[in-house]
Amino acid sequence: MSRFTILMYHIVDAPQSKAEAKYACPPALFEQHLEYLSSSIHTVVSLSDIEEHLLTGKALPRDAVAITIDDGFEDNYNQAFPLLRKYNMPATIFLASGVIGGTNDWMKGRGFPERKMLNWNQIREMNEHQISFGAHTVTHPKLSVLNNTLAEQEIIQSKMSIEEHLRQPCKHFAYPYGLFNNTTPEIVQQCGFTLACSTRSGFNNHERDPYILHRIEVYGTDSSWKLKQKMTFGMNDASPLFPFKYYSKQLLNKIGL
Ligand SMILES: [Zn+2]
After folding, report:
1. Distance from the alpha carbon of residue 39 to the mean position of ligand 1, in angstroms
2. Which one, of 190, 134, 140, lies nearest residue 166 by Cα?
3. For residues 197 and 214, what is the distance between their CA atoms, to the nearest angstrom?
4. All structural domains of the chain
5. Measured in angstroms, how far is the CA atom of residue 102 from the centroid of ligand 1?
6. How far apart are CA 115 and CA 249, in angstroms?
7. CA of 73 to the centre of ligand 1 (A)
8. Rounded Cα–Cα distance for residues 156 and 190 (Å)
9. Which own/partner pairs from 245-251 qualify as long-range (CB within 8 Å, at least 24 positions apart)?
10. Is the predicted pLDDT of residue 121 greater than 80, yes or no?
11. Tens digits of per-residue pLDDT, 153-190?
12. How remote is the CA of residue 10 from the centroid of ligand 1, in Å?
């Protein structure tokens, strides 16, 4: 059965603070990643292709990979979008609907600079060129600690806002901070989403819970080589020694040690 990978980005711009370094991928590096993907064994697919695969069993290309970008920063339009168009690749951006046209309020006071978020005109334009939009709540709360009523409001209202503005179904969700509790995935399902992305690392296949899909987090410091390592081993943290450790562990398992 097909194995597929989902990549997760956030900011596509030069980092403006130390805290941002992990989350901000400079555009030149982002382009190197796309260049690597276009020349590798991987085929970039949309989350809708993955949804169809999970719901109907329709085959995905071998080594399929989907690109997702969380939060909806304005640089996604200014920097990422022209590059995604250049390489003719689809991607999904998960929007926190309450800050569209505003700034990254939820990140204030943690060493993160203020950044502008996408506005609806930019979102509508991208939506006509292979960029789809998923929901990421209204205010970017920790869903794991909200009661069910509040969690449901955050989840359903972001969906409705996106559907109202784009006049099409919004079927994909991503948990802010990757956080959810025992009931959150069920609420997401009841709200009408067909799949949800977590921040758990690893590959996916048809046996994976569609409401807890795993992703590989691409850091703003990852070279194309590092990205390749991460995609080979399905790990966020693939250090230069990792292949050695991985294969020696496999060998030890094989010989029963
Ligand atoms: Zn987020």
Report:
1. 29
2. 134
3. 6
4. 4-254 (3.20.20.370)
5. 15
6. 43
7. 10
8. 9
9. none
10. yes
11. 999 999 999 999 999 999 999 999 999 999 999 999 99
12. 8
